[in-house]
């Protein structure tokens, strides 16, 4: 055991030094998006958090982000800011709306406009080169002739006479020009209100009409955000858009310490190929999803770790049983701030309460979309209580794998034992092909082997009623 502890310590120190030398500005990633269909047919979505690091896009300012959904390009684009964060550009016509400076932006140039702009720049550069060539030819010293001095004197005299005539003309016409200017001033100002006052602001959400134009299908939809640069090629960020209904029931699951056995080693050992998951969790989550519940994975990890975290959730495999697919929600902050908040401060609830409250508001008028939640800390319990999860359906697990129900803390269980009574704790929501009852009601062992009811006559019924 000593050797294992020393080895784990060495691995932790090595990866810690790797984290110190890692620049968070180089990490790219995107958070999964949840779209909820409302009772009236409209759509609402969670924010589109997408970030491109310096390794993918070195100069990110004013770059255009292309979007592909399920392998097909859509007629929506995003724009990159100075720090590599992507955002949509929304046009506003309201003159009374005051847009803060940090939200103000310029419109996205179309492909034709950008091509025209580059052509104009090229033409202006060519003109400047031609002008330089002409001026260099003109400033060359002229050949001296005997009559050059007299010619210069005559030109100076003509120039002075023309300047004197111009001055007297301006002096005589000054009064009439002032009156004409005063008469023309109101007419010029009268045209000012006709000018369009269109402004543009940053946004991370799409309207219902824009979401409908994406042609999403129920469940997961693959989305790819890509930026093409001249020298670095194309950088891509892959994620998933989930289309749910307003009456769906959602189960929240933490990752570090809940799926993994500890917070700190949960960041490190899976990247080294070490299985550090709790026993029985994949089978439990799989059975819960078969009963009709949606899963939501929420972690305070940074957005730059999205690909690594998503890969870990797909990698977990327990004797052929994998974790159910669900949206992954991470903190849009930098790597160091998220790691400091999660591991050192141990206050991930700062992010989780805001994130889960935002998701909860998407399901209105369903005020309780979260059915159950799994965590590993009192901070997780606090976050789940804030978003309306009932105490008897909040479960916490410790590094030993002991599962505690917050409503009855003396009853210690485990993922394996909870899996045995999963139909009692998570009852079946609706009968479908993915339910936990594969046999039909009309043909099963019970209906085949049961004895038929004994026959009876109607006369016995009439005599009994009489």
From TrEMBL:
Residue span(s) of domain LNS2/PITP: 250-406
GO biological process, one term: cellular response to insulin stimulus
SMART domains cross-referenced by the UniProt entry: LNS2
A cellular component annotation (GO) from this entry: nucleus
Region (Disordered): 132-190
Pfam families from the UniProt entry: Lipin_N (PF04571), LNS2 (PF08235)
Comp. bias intervals (Basic residues): 152-162
Start-end of Basic and acidic residues biased regions: 170-183
Ranges of compositional bias, category Polar residues: 133-150
Catalytic activity: a 1,2-diacyl-sn-glycero-3-phosphate + H2O = a 1,2-diacyl-sn-glycerol + phosphate
GO terms for MF: phosphatidate phosphatase activity; transcription coactivator activity
SUPFAM superfamilies: HAD-like (SSF56784)
Transmembrane segments: none
Protein name: Lipin 1 gamma
Organism this protein belongs to: Bubalus bubalis
Species classification: Eukaryota, Metazoa, Chordata, Craniata, Vertebrata
């Amino acid at each position: 055991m000593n050797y294992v502890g020393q080895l784990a310590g060495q691995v932790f120190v090595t990866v810690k030094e790797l984290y110190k030398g890692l620049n968070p500005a180089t990490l790219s990633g995107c958070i999964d998006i949840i779209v909820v269909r409302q009772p009236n047919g409209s759509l609402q979505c969670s924010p589109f958090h997408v970030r491109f690091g310096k390794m993918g896009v070195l100069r990110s300012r004013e770059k255009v982000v292309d979007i592909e959904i399920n392998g097909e390009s859509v007629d929506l684009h995003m724009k990159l800011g100075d720090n590599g964060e992507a955002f949509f550009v929304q046009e506003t016509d309201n003159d009374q709306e005051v847009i803060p400076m940090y939200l103000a932006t310029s419109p996205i140039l179309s492909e034709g406009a950008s091509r025209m702009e580059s052509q104009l720049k090229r033409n202006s550069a060519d003109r400047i080169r031609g002008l330089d060539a002409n001026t260099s030819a003109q400033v060359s010293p002229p050949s001296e002739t005997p009559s050059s001095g007299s010619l210069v004197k005559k030109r100076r005299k003509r120039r002075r006479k023309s300047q004197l005539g111009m001055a007297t003309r301006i002096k005589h016409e000054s009064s009439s020009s002032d009156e004409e200017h005063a008469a023309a001033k109101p007419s010029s100002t009268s045209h000012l209100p006709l000018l369009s006052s269109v402004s543009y602001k940053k946004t991370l959400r799409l309207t219902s009409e824009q979401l409908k134009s994406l042609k999403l299908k129920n469940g997961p939809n693959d989305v790819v955000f890509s930026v093409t640069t001249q020298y670095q090629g194309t950088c891509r960020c892959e994620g998933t858009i989930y289309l749910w209904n307003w009456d769906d029931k959602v189960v929240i699951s933490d990752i570090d310490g809940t799926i993994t056995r500890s917070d700190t080693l949960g960041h490190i050992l899976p990247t080294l190929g070490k299985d550090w998951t709790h026993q029985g969790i994949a089978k439990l989550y799989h059975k819960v999803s078969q009963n009709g519940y949606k899963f939501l994975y929420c972690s305070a990890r940074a957005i730059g770790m999205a690909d690594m975290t998503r890969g870990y959730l797909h990698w977990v495999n327990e004797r052929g049983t994998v974790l159910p697919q669900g949206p992954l929600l991470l903190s849009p902050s930098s790597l160091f701030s998220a790691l400091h908040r999660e591991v050192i401060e141990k206050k991930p609830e700062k992010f989780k309460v805001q994130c889960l409250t935002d998701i909860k508001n998407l399901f209105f008028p369903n005020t309780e979309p979260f059915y159950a939640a799994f965590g590993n800390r009192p901070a997780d319990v606090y976050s789940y209580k804030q978003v309306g999860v009932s105490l008897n359906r909040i479960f916490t697990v410790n590094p030993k794998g002991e599962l505690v129900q917050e409503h009855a803390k003396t009853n210690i269980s485990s993922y394996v034992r909870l899996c045995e009574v999963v139909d009692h704790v998570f009852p079946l929501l609706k009968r479908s092909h993915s339910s936990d009852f594969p046999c039909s009601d009309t043909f099963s062992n019970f209906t085949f082997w049961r004895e038929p009811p004994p026959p009876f006559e109607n006369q016995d019924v009439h005599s009994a009623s009489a």
